[in-house]
Amino acid sequence: MNLTEITPDGAGWTYSGLRVLTLGPGEEAELPTGGAETLVLPLAGSCDVTIGVPADEVAVTFELQGRRDVFSRVTDFAYAPRDATVLVSSREGGRFALPSARCENRLPPRYGPAENVPVELRGAGQMGRQVNNFCTPEAFAADRLIACEVLTPGGNWSSYPPHKHDEDGPGEAVLEEIYYFEVTRDGMAYQRVYGTAERPIDVLEEVRTGDTVLIPHGWHGPSIAAPGYDLYYLNVMAGPGAERAWLICDDPAHAWVRETWRDLPADPRLPMTSAAGPEGER
């Protein structure tokens, strides 16, 4: 078993967290949710998830079919409330993401079917990408946690135009964000983050499978998929707002790019995955 963990305290913020759990065949791991609602999202492999709850509630087990890898299909997932335990066991082994958000309210444990995940094709041309909105406010109920997956074909840019969500105001909400990356063929990709004069930050990072980038504030994007290497990233977001809302503000210097999408052809490589997956996989 191997566990990589980003906690709010370790990140220097308040809400967003992520654990990535790797299990060998037949292994299991029990993890507390503490004060954070938590998802179990298969990255590679299948698993059983048993959610233990206080004595006055009934523990539940969900069988997650999962997927071969993040580039093969949209996956099912499980939701665990705060103040619970999550037991993840895998007969064949695998890798599992546990995005989380500190929260106040306890929602019931639930199963998220892959077939219910809205798949969005965003952008066009070399800015085309696929967004799996499995835990966005419109798709799945949670207290504070917002999460989605983005798949970018090799050579394309996503998270573009650059945008931010670090101020409360019309069309923008404060959200701490984690990017977790995977890249095909042991390849590389690049992530840009930059700030304002008042709140400077300057990141241009080469990323590979298993890498993360933390975005406490500032404009972020593009996420650049190198030619020949498809890019996946998991976005984990949460913030202090009374409303669970995913509201962003484009960098005014580059916002015009969004208007060009309607005149560009769709990328024929999209969508890259679906809930059905390749024929015969399920």
Automatic annotation (TrEMBL):
Its EC number is 5.3.1.30. SUPFAM superfamilies: RmlC-like cupins (SSF51182). GO terms for biological process: inositol catabolic process. Keywords: Isomerase. GO terms for molecular function: 5-deoxy-D-glucuronate isomerase activity; glucuronate isomerase activity. Pfam families: KduI. InterPro entries: Deoxy-glucuronate_isom_IolB (IPR024203), KduI/IolB_isomerase (IPR021120), RmlC-like_jellyroll (IPR014710), RmlC_Cupin_sf (IPR011051). Signal peptide: none annotated. This is 5-deoxy-glucuronate isomerase. It comes from Actinomadura rubrisoli. The gene is iolB.
